[in-house]
Design brief:
By secondary structure, this protein is of the alpha+beta class.
Length: 205
Amino acid sequence: MRNKNLAWIGIFAMMSIITAPIMQVADAHQRALFTINGKDYLFVIGSLNEPIFVDDKTGVELRAIWPNSTDPTNSNTNGTQPITGLENSLKVEILAGDKNMTSNLQPAYGEVGSYESEIFYPTIPTTLSYRIFGDMNGTNFDATFSCTPEGEQRPPDNSTVEISENVVRKALQGGYGCPEERVGFPEPYVSQYEISQMLNKTTSP
């Protein structure tokens, strides 16, 4: 019996080790509380498959929530409700320097109130910004969120900011990380972007 109990403890410990990084990754998002036309909305935004690296597959993830009025920036508290149907009214623009691409937001499979952009591949370590825009209950909504190297450790901002007519941001907490360089071993990692640059140099006259 003692050996059996030890075996179960070992399995539980291993599962805790395996699942802990996954839980941390899921939390590496930014939470923004808005009042839009008199109603509170909580948006949780970040990248898929965080942390992300150069040449990794990723995308934008947005969760939209009717918040609990007593704890409005907590997306997991009792009393929250997912907001559905936003695929018909919102889009996302992905920005990096002077480059941009616009994508529809589609409902995430099996996750009510969660939306995902088209998949893309970051080709260099740079700042990614996600601009969510469209119509929210008859009100024009346009807000941009940017990654930071500190990710979830970004200091909170609980100041009230008027974004546009009838759109007020009341809190901004957490964050999501920017694409990072891959670590190569035993040889340095060469990104697809670097390879294309080297090929262009060899073929140019």
